[in-house]
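#dry-run=false #mode=assembly
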Amino acid sequence: MAEATEIFHAKEGPEKTANPHPLVELTLTRMREFLREKEAVFWVFVFPVLMTFALGIAFRNTAPDKTLVAIEAGDAKASETASILSRSPDITATVLSPDEAQRQLRSGKVAIIVKPVDNTFEYRFDPTRPESRTARLLVDDVLQKGKGRADVVSVGEAKITEPGARYVDFLVPGLIGMNMMGSGLWGLGFTVVIARSRKILKRFAATPMRRSHYLLSFMLSRLVFLVLEVAAVIIFATLAFGFTVRGSWLAVALMTVLGGFTFSGIGLLVAARPTTIEGVSGLMNFIMLPMWLLSGTFFSSERFPQVLQPFIQALPLTALNNVLRALMNEGTSLSSNWVSIAILLIWFVVSFVVALKIFKWQ
Amino acid sequence: MSTQTSSVALRCAGLVKRFADVTAVNGLDLEVFKGECFGLLGPNGAGKTTTVEILEGLTPSDEGTVDILGQRWSKGDDRALRERIGVQLQETQLAEKVTVAETLRLFRSFYQRGHNVDEVIHTVALEEKRNARVGKLSGGQKQRLAVACALVSDPELLFLDEPTTGLDPQARLSLWDIVEKFRAGGGTILLTTHYMEEAARLCDRVAIMDHGKVISLGTPAELIESLGADQIIEFSVTRELAEEALKRLPAVTHLHKRDDEYSLTVSEIGVALPALLGEIERQQSEIVTLTTHQATLEDVFVSLTGRMLRDG
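#status=ok
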């Protein structure tokens, strides 16, 4: 007991010990809170790797798949047609009943139906499907040759499948961008709003803590996790799919930092006012959903109609995806991506400044 | 004036705070001297928390002035002032995934000077929970940690807002212990509570608050004395009694009836009790229950407002 009262009597000497810096302590606290939340760790680190794996497998470019062709069964012509088509190494032809052939065409199992009619053929296919159009050209070529057409000139060909032009190469930068958006917004938005609803922000406001330190600690802890997050996806994609970064690593690092800060800024803005988790969740989905859909994570955003393009291109995730793809896939320089970089910088500065202005501590 | 100022830790005058539909604080004056434990006692909704948050510089008041340790809020030096005060808020729930020691190290890092984390852990008797996560602590342990976060800066003035609300008696006692030690070391405390026994035990002076105002002020003994009585007789009977006759009994200063329960404030129990028993018999009623106790702050509040503290 006598010992316990000691601190209250030592009026001369509450020592000015080597006190940890508040920014360091705040950042450490952020990191501890994150790492001790198992679900968060899964979504940030494991999920993107699993996603890369699943999509990489689903869309892997092996030797181009054979074109699947159905031949309508009828007379002897059917088997003759099949034998002509099977001379081509690129075609797998099957003789099917008309009903079955129709069903398989509808469900996409075959790309085209060939129906022998007397001495000629009828092709049935859906011209809006790219693989059906290709199949029509291929099948026609093989059948015409089989019936005796001769080539007018002979051509040479060289087959090149470059890393950097496959779907997985397109996918990895997009997944990194999407992941950075998700972890920036959820990571910041949730933590801040929880702290506000539990009155921890108010308690901090009653200390001499500098408010900028509190907000900066989010940036710093995000930075640490960002490195791990991005590295996890890139390393996995490299090992599993031979992914390569063609541009400069330094440029990639700079852009992931900028992207991370941009989405932290937006996360802070989203979290500046709401006092409930429900409130901030709705707001975050409202902000992230358009970017998930439009910003070209899984397919190029160029596919959307022209009228939407100015809006789509101004989205921070579009800008980040574009610059990451340019650096990783095409190996271009930072300066040639100045538009995307400027868009990201504007989002970062504006959201951060506005967030600081309207931020509520209680 | 100047000599008086030096002994005053906190002074506020004419505080008013209005919210959309209520006036939470309605012209409040307070003076807390250095080295004393000052209690704000009142039911829920009396305006205690709002008052404390204005004093802590967390909520701006609509009217009135606040002097804290010779400084005022929003004069450009709030951080220096925050270095000197310790705050425990009623509703703060500290982060659950962080340990006791980590939480205190974080709070310690905000201050230029203060105690070492282990000393404070020792003071609030949480050594065994040093590396336990906050989420695993009991209510009493969490509250001791909240107070430790307020103590880690070695404050001159400590604000405690209902520090023992919802705690079991054991946990309450150990918290009182911490407060008493801080006070014994020369610290000044402003404490809010709606437990009269807490105010009576810890506080040198008490202000009783109701509807945003101080309705009575003094040492607990003075307040009880102001009842003009030192004993309370509480009783119930089989047949309702004529109240006028009760009030006329010798040594009775006040009568309060609540449901079937009569409460007599008496100056001399030896005179009043036999007279009361005679009166009950005269009115042909019989005693069901009867207790007597020393007058408490609760009785002061009841006699001032006609309500019980816990009625809110």
